[in-house]
Design goal:
The complex is a heterodimer of chains A (345) and B (293).
Chain A (H helix, E strand, L loop, with lengths): L1 H27 L8 E2 L2 E8 L10 H7 L2 H4 L2 E7 L3 H10 L4 E5 H9 L4 E8 L4 E5 L13 E4 L4 H11 L10 E4 L5 H6 L5 E5 H10 L4 E5 H4 L6 E6 H6 L1 H18 L5 H12 L3 H14 L10 H13 L9 H4 L3 H10 L3
Parallel strand pairs in A: 2-3, 2-4, 7-8
Antiparallel strand pairs in A: 1-2, 4-11, 5-11, 6-9, 6-10
Helix pairs in contact in A: 2-11, 5-14, 8-13, 11-16, 12-13
Chain B lengths: L1 H70 L9 H13 L3 H32 L1 H16 L2 H12 L3 H25 L3 H9 L4 H38 L4 H11 L3 H29 L5
Helix pairs in contact in B: 2-10, 3-4, 3-6, 3-8, 3-9, 5-6, 5-8, 6-8, 8-9, 8-10, 9-10
The chains are: A alpha/beta (345), B mainly alpha (293).
């Protein structure tokens, strides 16, 4: 009989679902973070805006691998975020204790009055390079040509200007074509765009895979005042977990010193390959690029001139409706404490 | 009177020859039936052979075109099938695929089961009780029309970035198609069956047991099958848009680092997963509700 047969099966399914629900509930209770202490170690969640991370984001992974977090009695759990906006939202909502994302996200959050502040910078300079398609060896050749961009926001425009202006080309002289970053390579291969801006790691891959593609500009040279990346925390978390925040920044500064030491190159590149999923040569290239640009700071890394310049650009391009002050965007007090604790050793 | 008697006797005397004739006719019919069956079998064999040949030929053409295009393209844009197979082997032997697949399947299983059970229960209630339909119908159809991908960022803010958000998202992807299929199915159960149930003065319990549940089974099966495809979409969206994890992490990492061969290898795994899960569901459906086709 169908119904009996069916009911018997439904009973079996109910048992299965009960087990499933129990497992689901057990999964809910497994999240940690928020500075809670376990065995004398503070649990913290760190959100990284770019997944998989580029080499510029290696600092926290170094701190983990080299035991700097453990030394500061921190148990760090990494959360790979899809983008900077989600990272800032997660930080504001309290799911993330330390959010690593673009400075523009911190500035936009400050302009909207979000209760978060950038407390440190993991990358003080642009780690990007402008790449010309085969046949383009100088940005002057881009006049009248299509150029790939990720939008008309201040950051995207700055990246293009950093590419064009050193060659005396104004943005209005090229044809800006908006697309996603993932579309740059196919578009360049198909000849639809003649230049685009990539992270240093990706720039290495493109120039080695696409015959004739050339680096036109290392952008930290043409836009040295641009503040690239910040670490944001929720104000209430920082106030209630001052010691955790300072210890976290101490570990991060130790990691930066370690990364800036050429003696650690091999170990750093090994870690980079494991964390980024990139080829060894690309990681090595990006490591040297970031070190040469001085993007990994030795200290606080929150230069007021850079922060204000970057906020000014976003305001100019109407990404933000009001221009927040330095103290609204940034709170360097925790990093100052950490730097003082660490000293000049 | 002699006529019929005569006829009777004639027919009586003719009986043996008639039975022989019938036996001959039966043998002939059997022969014809055997010939027909043999012919049908032969045709079926031929058809199978033809379809198999077409499948193999189409596979060879697709793989050949893939190889040719891959060989004449740059690595970051497209890779030949040989490179993709080798990347798949690398993902398996380096121990990257196993844990990722395990995570994705586990998350999918919990989300799918949750969505399916909730979808069937709510769908039955919406289909059977007008009062429930009036109370929740508007929200259900409004949410069904909303692209779930738009909800993903909000869900991760509300529920955090862990596995719970991913399961809820997968569950939502499965829930709505199931709900709509089941409620539609229940509402369209043969009215004659319902009339018969009423004339038999069936209790509510018996109505559910003998009419509604068996009647809705084909629609539950349809919703469950559709839910597999939707759930897989949900799984990828969840694994890419909340916290990178599982197969979504493998795919995103490969794509972001320009390892196109690995990205294509992950896609092949996903396709295989879809086919296997669907086949598994068909198998379960045949055992649980064999009348549902």
């Amino acid at each position: 009989m169908h119904p009996e047969y069916l009911l018997k099966r439904i009973r079996g399914l109910t048992v299965l679902c009960t087990v499933g629900a129990a497992l689901l509930l057990s999964a809910c209770g497994s999240s940690s973070g928020g500075g809670a202490t376990t065995n004398g170690m503070a649990d913290v969640n760190v959100g990284i805006a770019l997944s998989p991370p580029k080499v510029i984001f290696l600092g926290p992974y170094v701190a983990q691998q080299q035991g700097f977090f453990a030394k500061e009695k921190l148990n760090v759990h990494f959360i790979s975020m899809p983008n900077g906006l989600q990272t800032e939202l997660g930080t504001t909502a309290g799911s993330i204790d330390f959010g690593f994302s673009s400075s523009t996200d911190s500035i936009e959050a400050a302009a909207q009055g979000a209760p978060i502040h950038a407390i440190w910078s993991y990358g003080t300079k642009l780690d990007t390079e402008c790449i010309g398609a085969p046949g383009i060896t100088n940005a002057r050749q881009l006049v009248g040509q299509p150029v790939g961009s990720t939008g008309s926001d201040g950051f995207s425009i700055t990246l293009l200007q950093a590419c064009l202006e050193p060659a005396g080309v104004h943005l209005s002289q090229v044809r800006q074509i908006d697309m996603t970053r993932a579309e740059f390579v196919p578009a360049m291969t198909a000849g639809k765009i003649k230049a685009a801006v990539f992270h240093a790691d990706d720039a290495y891959v493109i120039t080695h895979q696409l015959k004739g593609a050339t680096v036109l500009q290392a952008e930290y040279k043409s836009r040295p005042q641009w503040w690239y990346g910040g670490v944001a925390v929720l104000d209430s978390f920082a106030k209630s977990h001052k010691s955790v925040v300072e210890r976290f920044l101490t570990a991060m500064m130790m990691a930066d010193r370690w990364m800036n030491n050429p003696a650690n190159d091999k170990a750093l590149i090994d870690l980079g390959v494991a964390k980024t999923g990139e080829d060894r040569a690309a990681v090595a290239y990006a490591v040297h690029f970031n070190r040469a640009s001085g993007t990994w700071p030795d200290g606080v890394g929150l230069n007021p001139a850079s922060v204000n310049y970057t906020a000014g650009v976003l305001y100019k391009y109407k990404d933000i409706r009001r221009l927040p002050s330095y103290s609204e965007i940034v709170d360097p007090s925790y990093a100052d404490q950490a730097a003082a604790k660490l000293g000049g050793a | 009177m002699t006529g019929p008697v005569q006829n009777m006797s004639t027919s009586t005397t003719q009986l043996p020859s008639a039975s022989v004739g019938a036996a001959t006719a039966g043998a002939k019919r059997e022969e014809i039936e055997t010939a027909i069956i043999a012919r049908q079998r032969g045709r079926a064999r031929r058809d199978r052979f033809v379809y198999l040949t077409i499948r193999i030929a189409s596979l060879l053409i697709v793989l050949g075109a893939w190889q040719y295009y891959g060989d004449h393209s740059i690595g970051v844009v497209f890779e030949p099938i040989t490179a993709v197979v080798s990347a798949l082997w690398h993902l398996i032997t380096s121990g990257q695929l196993g844990p990722a697949l395990g995570y994705s399947l586990w998350t999918f299983a919990l989300g799918y089961l949750g969505g399916l059970v909730a979808g069937v229960i709510v769908g039955m209630c919406v289909g059977v009780y007008r009062i429930v339909e009036s109370a929740v119908g508007l929200y259900v159809y409004a949410l069904y029309a909303t692209p779930m991908v738009a909800i993903a960022p909000l869900l991760s803010i509300w529920l955090g970035f862990g596995v719970l958000t991913q399961e809820v998202l997968i569950g939502l992807f499965v829930f709505f198609p199931c709900l709509v299929a089941v409620s539609y199915g229940v509402r369209n159960i043969d009215t004659e069956l319902l009339e018969v149930a009423r004339s038999l003065r069936m209790s509510k319990r018996d109505l559910w047991r003998h009419v509604l549940l068996p009647g809705a089974a084909p629609y539950v099966a349809a919703g469950a099958t559709q839910g597999v495809a939707m759930g897989l979409v949900g799984m990828f969206i969840a694994e890419i848009l909340t916290q990178l994890s599982g197969l979504g992490d493998l795919l995103e990492t490969a794509a972001q680092t320009y390892h196109t061969d690995q990205a294509l290898a992950v896609l092949i795994v996903i396709m295989f997963l879809g086919v296997v899960l669907r086949a598994l569901l068909t198998l379960i459906q045949r055992r649980v509700a064999p009348w549902a086709k």
